[in-house]
Amino acid sequence: MRGHVEWNGVGEMDGLLAAEDGAVRSALGQELKRLKGVAEPAAALGVGADASAGDVRARFLALVKAYHPNRFARRPPDIKKLANEVFLHLRRAHQRMTDRQPAQLAPPSAPSAAGAAAGAAAIGTSPAGAQAAAAVAARASEVSPPSQPKLDVDAALAARRRRVRSNPSSPTTGPMAGPVQVLERVRRRDIEHKERFQTALADLGRGQLESARNALRTLAAESPSDRRFRAYLHYVTGRMHEAAGRASDALAEYDRALSFDPDLEPARGSRQVLGGGDKPDGGGGAGRRGRWFRK
Amino acid sequence: MAGRIIGIDLGTTNSCVAVLEGGAPVVIHNQEGGRTTPSMVSWTPAGEVVVGSASKRQMVTNPARTVFGVKRLIGRRFDAPQATRLAAALPYQIVPARNGDAWVRIGDRDVSPQEISSQVLRKMKQIAEDYLGEGVAEAIVTVPAYFDEVQRRATRDAGAVAGLEVRAILNEPTAAALAYGVQKQADQKLAVFDLGGGTFDISILRIESGVFEVLATSGDTDLGGDDFDRRVIDRLLEEFMEAHGVDLRSDAVALQRLKEAAERAKIELSSSMTTEINLPFLASGPGGPLHLLRELGRGELEGICVALIDALEGPCRKALSDSRLESADIDQVLLVGGMTRMPAVAAKVVDIFGKQPSKGVNPDEIVAMGAAVQSGLMGGELAEVVLLDVTPHSLGVKVTGDRMSVVIPANTTIPTREQKAFATTDDDQSYVVIEIYQGQSERVSDNRFLGRFVLGDLPSRPAGRVRVEVSFTLDADGLLEVTAKETEGGRAASVRIEAASGLSPAELARLSEPRP
After folding, report:
1. Cross-chain residue pair B422–A68, CB shorter than 8 Å
2. A159 touches chain B (CB under 8 A)
3. Do A123 and B416 count as a contact with CB atoms less than 8 A apart?
4. Searching chain A, which residue's CA lies closest to the CA of residue B168?
5. pLDDT reading at A126 higher than 50
6. Neighbours of A243 (CB within 10 A)
7. Which of A81, B136, B280, B444 is a good FRET partner for B369, with 20 to 30 A between their CA atoms?
8. Among residues of chain A, what percentage have pLDDT more than 90?
């Protein structure tokens, strides 16, 4: 057993099955440290950023064979735990490279409207507080049916942003990234975002607000600088409030939507329907409206 | 490294033990020459414990002190509907233990299912030791894929009581796939249809370059060969009542004889079209002794059991849709468990998957062989194979309104770590109670309670303004660790959930001591 194990040396990990506990411990520790240091999933797996789906899968399977915790089942508990952590990092990297489904990328705080309700409605409290909690819950459900909870978009977004920041998909990190690859990746991501945005709009058109909102939330979190995503996110949230009969909440969301994109005609229109009048600083006129409709 | 790890299929009706020799799994014969051993334990009036074939032989004369099918009780509450239904049909007595679990009353003593299972495991350990000529201290024990954490934990404890360190609790269909796939070594998608004595599992796997990845699993822990037997027994009981006006339900010896006869008739009808049930002197009536003599046809058996056979389809469809596959995508169907020998069951499989199941697999032995293969993955003998299994049930947290907020959904590959954020419900709420449950129901009280802990000293904020992030880590052994963290101040608490199996550490220690 060598003292040093190459991060991409799956072949050398085979030797670990027979190695002394000490060598296994240090090899797994080094691998874990490496994985914690790389942000790019491709770098974590040790494939090129432009690797094909087949290559990514083959590489992942090889890593699974080397690092699966079952391999270390007869080792001391701390080694099993290390292997577990290594595996979790590899699995997350693999998921990030393969997962193209926005629903699964949705922030954990509110995977669905019902989830948000559950989150906000929340976990049991002190026995003394239980009654009060029940009362609060009852009040809440009087105001809003359980499927249309108070939507806390900003908290969810903030949480998502924090996660994105701590795990940046920023194109400048990762040893595999050359300038050409970076450009290529940015381009591909834009194309992919565009597709997902179109899907979200289609959902919106069909009245599937929930799924549109989930997709938009993911998009907004992945591209915080894209004001269009955030504008639409607030617009859809407003629509959900409106559907639940919470006119003032809806109005507030429409205003927020317009603050991100004053040209967002649907938000402006909905706002007027609700009697909110034209936004004083809106700057939306017939010309802009016309542009929206021409699209 | 240490000694050998044996693989044990701890079945409802029969158990089987295998070891890896030269990279290939070998099933070990018991002292009577059988490749499987009845999962039966009796206490003789003298207090002696008899296990396996010997127990089965004296079951008719000692029905109230002979326990079979205890796998259906392990890790169950006495008041669970499954236990209640079982209690009504068994010749031995089920009682509530102090902790609410279902135990078995033998004479004046209450025995836990863990202890009864440990007797079977001890027997299997001894069979392996006789064959290997050396002591065995470690085992891999298989359980139905659909077992929950409490049932798994209880099985692990049974191993500990038997003097075995259980290195892994392996899902039975996964084990079968391992044993099959290691022989074939081809990339394919596999459905494992496992209908045993007490449980039904269906798992869909993808085998690719030696990685066995479970895509989805489903099933019913309360559907198996015993239920087929019981339908036949019920029919016979009704007929006997009609013909003679005698109710045999309270007659333990008669019930035991009926059970044996029903099981034998069912097995015979897998190969022949008719069979005879002949039970002379089954009871005594006013006019003298009463006999039961009757012919049973295969068609009639299928008619009696049609609802059970139909119940097999739902879980199969669910597993297919959970794995996002059509039946046409499945390359091979494996039949596991003695009940799959019944032609009507095999026909149902063909009906669901549209193809003939694989031949050349022994449905009674393949699970134990798979457990032996898994021991090779751990010991390093089989470096080119690895297994990615899933968690069969959703794991989550109780939220207000008796609802379950799922953190790890069913059929997630393990090991895994998932997070979810929650908020307080009260103004200035000072602590939250995190209650962890497992199960598929949205109503949390229908699910299995696993554990709870408290996160205190929360900052004073209006309701909903304090956020708590809950993180679930499920490791490869299926052990769950839950951490809760308040996001603002960073207060954290965590707990390692060891689903209580109903035996305290003291009870376990006492049972584990070698008997005189």
Report:
1. no
2. yes
3. no
4. A73
5. no
6. 12
7. A81
8. 11
CA gap A97, A63 in Å, rounded: 15
Residue B149 backbone phi and psi in degrees, to 5: -60, -35
**Buried (b) or exposed (e) across B32-48, using 16+ Cβ within 10 A?**
eeebbbbbbbbbeeeee
Q: Say whether B355 is catalytic.
A: no
Residue A61 neighbours by CB under 8 Å, 6+ apart: B208, B209, B210, B211
Sort out which chain B residues have CB atoms less than 8 A from A122's CB and list them. 399-400, 422-425, 432, 464
| CB contact at 8 A, B176 and B201 | no
Pairing of β B390-391 and β B412-413? antiparallel
Phi, psi of B16 (to 5 degrees): -145, 145
Q: Return the axis-axis angle of helices B343-353 and B313-322, rounded to nearest 10°.
A: 30
Which two three-digit tokens encode residue B132?
């290997």
Instruction: Identify the band that residue A112 occupies on the pLDDT scale cut at 50, 70 and 90.
Output: very low
What residues of chain A, 27 to 66, have a C-beta less than 8 Å from chain B? 57-58, 61-62, 64-65
pLDDT at A285 exceeding the cut of 90: no
DSSP string, A120-186: HH-B---HHHHHHHHHHHHHHHHHS-TTS----HHHHHHHHHHHHHHS---TT-STT--HHHHHHHH
Q: From the centroid of its chain, how far is CA B381?
A: 28
Closest Cβ opposite residue B388 in set A64, A137, A152: A64
pLDDT of B499? 62
Residue whose structure tokens are 């411990």: A25
B101, B115, B194, B364: which one is catalytic? Answer: B194
- pLDDT band, residue B80 (cuts 50/70/90): confident
**pLDDT tens digits for A185-206?**
666 677 777 778 877 887 887 7
Distance CA B29, CA B52 (A): 13
Those residues with Cβ within 8 angstroms of residue B230's Cβ, 6 or more apart along the chain or in another chain: B89, B262
**C-alpha R_g of chain B:** 24
B59: helix, coil or strand?
coil
In angstroms, rounded to a whole number, what is the distance separating the alpha carbons of residues B189 and B70? 33
CB B398 within 8 A of CB B437: yes
Q: Which two tokens stand for residue A178?
A: 């050359």
Q: Say if pTM beats, i.e. exceeds, 0.90.
A: no
Distances (CA, A) of A266 to A211, A239, A261, B67: 18, 10, 11, 71
Are the beta carbons of B467 and A122 separated by less than 8 Å?
Answer: no
What single letter denotes the amino acid at residue B32?
Answer: E
Taking CA atoms, what residue in B is nearest to A67?
B386
Number of Cβ within 10 Å of residue B505's Cβ equals: 8
B374 contact residues in A (CB cutoff 8 A): 70
The verdict on a CB contact (< 8 Å) between B400 and A124 is: yes
Q: Testing the interface with B: which of A13, A57, A67, A70 to mutate, by most B Cβ within 10 A?
A: A70
* C-alpha distance from B377 to closest chain A C-alpha (Å): 6
